[in-house]
Automatic annotation (TrEMBL):
Subcellular location: Cell membrane
Predominant location category: membrane
GO cellular component: plasma membrane
Membrane topology: Multi-pass membrane protein
UniProt keywords, alphabetically: Cell membrane, Membrane, Transmembrane, Transmembrane helix
Name the record gives this protein: Permease membrane protein
Superkingdom of this protein's organism: Bacteria
Length: 432
């Protein structure tokens, strides 16, 4: 019966869901271009001016701030979205309200913990910019504890989630240029405050969006059991997502130790371009995730279902990887030193877009089935391999070694997932 169901032609409703997913992906990509694109444009101006010190300081602090926000979200963009998608199918709006408040309670506890650790770091930091930035950016963690991104995703409104979330980046981009002529302490305070303001605006807009579509959070409604379930699921999702993020930050640290602040700034700038390519693919996958949850539950071949569902992301990864490789090579020999060096970084890391797309699609298939633990295990194994390869190959081959280490870690993660799950058929996890 399952196999037959997998072969049935798409109905008009299926096609409608597919087009809705494409529309959400388009909104996510447009929001990304406006939000993170604003930060990138100002950074381009800083590179052209040779202000690499501010670029390195801001890029490092902003990168770790985004990581902190991801930790505070605690995997709810996936775990809550999956629960809400099932609740929406059943027509259970009460479950949506329960999910929001239960997730918010969990995230608030995480935010307080992360904020406490950040405050301790700020007290002992020697860098004036970093100390000021962390102090001013700490409120962003509390604001983000009440984000509704997972709810909007589960309701097939991830495009709205992207539109609201771009405020987080746009505010930082708008504050970066005015901060360039100030002291380290002043620029750190302004840029950290910009992040907090952006997060506050984003969360407010998300809650207004829920009210507009008739799904407001309403009165506080949560149970310890639901909170415990979200902690378990969210931790598994977070352990699957964090390794890739930590691998990049480890590359940043190794680059700073081996090559100095100037090349670190170039690395950050060029790496953002390839990271943007991967992020666009993630938006496409994210927009189609509710449809994947529906389709994969009745599929006898979850891997092929996942790649069929995410064929747009797969083709975009092929074209994006090859396009950035060619563009980077062309720019290397046709412009001044700083931009040429950044273009070289883009060419080196363009291969990671394609290898990352493979492991991301496999991971999403496993998450749609509820097998968060297997995804976390494979991701953490890949992270350890990336750490070792980054340190060794970075010392031996320089920036090229960091690019090779990334591809090796992606291959290791994909093989681990295939070995744990997809070499044999597995039913969906009982946890919802």
């Amino acid at each position: 019966m399952t196999a037959i169901g997998a072969r049935l032609p798409k109905t008009r409703g299926d096609r409608g869901l597919s087009w809705q997913g494409t529309g959400n992906a388009a909104l996510l990509i447009a929001s990304f271009c406006i939000g993170q694109g604003s930060v990138f444009l100002v950074q381009t101006l800083l590179v052209s001016r040779g202000e690499l010190e501010l670029l390195a300081r801001f890029g490092t602090c902003f990168s770790f701030a985004v990581l902190a926000l991801m930790i505070v979200d605690f995997g709810s963009v996936t775990s809550v979205a999956r629960r809400v998608a099932f609740a929406d199918i059943k027509g259970d709006p009460a479950e949506i309200r329960h999910c929001f408040w239960s997730a918010s309670i969990v995230r608030f506890c995480v935010a307080i913990t992360v904020a406490s650790l950040a405050s301790l770091y700020a007290l002992g930091a020697q860098d004036d910019f970093a100390r000021a930035y962390v102090t001013a950016a700490t409120p962003a963690l509390v604001f983000w504890a009440f984000n509704a991104g997972g709810i909007l995703d589960g309701l097939k409104l991830s495009g709205l989630s992207g539109v609201t979330g771009m405020a987080t980046y746009f505010c930082s981009g708008a504050a970066l240029l005015p901060a360039s002529g100030l002291s380290a302490n002043q620029s750190g305070l302004i840029l950290g405050a910009a992040l907090s303001i952006g997060c506050g605006i984003a969360v407010t807009m998300q809650l207004l969006a829920l009210w507009h579509v008739g799904r407001p959070p309403g009165r506080i409604s949560a149970t310890w059991r639901r909170c415990a379930d979200l902690v378990r699921e969210g931790l598994s999702v977070l352990l699957a997502v964090l390794p890739g993020q930590l691998s990049f930050r480890f590359q940043l640290i190794i680059c700073s130790l081996l090559f100095g602040q100037g090349l670190t700034a170039i690395f950050l700038y060029g790496r953002q371009i390839t990271a943007a390519g991967s992020q666009v693919l993630e938006f496409v996958r994210r927009a189609h995730f509710p449809l994947l949850v529906h389709g994969i539950a009745t599929s006898a071949s979850p891997v092929w279902t996942a790649f069929g569902n995410q064929r747009l992301a797969t083709w975009l990864s092929v074209f994006g990887s090859s396009g950035l490789l060619i563009a980077g090579l062309l720019i290397v020999g046709s412009t001044h030193a700083a931009i040429a060096a950044a273009a070289g970084v883009v060419s080196l890391f363009s291969f990671g877009i394609l290898s990352g797309a493979l492991v991301s699609t496999l991971s999403q298939a496993a998450q749609a089935l509820g097998h968060y633990r297997a995804v976390a295990l494979s991701a953490n194994g890949a992270m350890l391999i990336c750490f070792v390869a980054t340190a060794a190959l970075g010392y031996w081959l320089g920036l090229a070694g960091l690019a090779v280490a990334e591809v090796v870690s992606h291959a290791a993660g994909a093989f681990c997932l295939w070995y744990l799950l997809f070499r044999r058929g597995l039913p969906a996890s009982r946890g919802t």
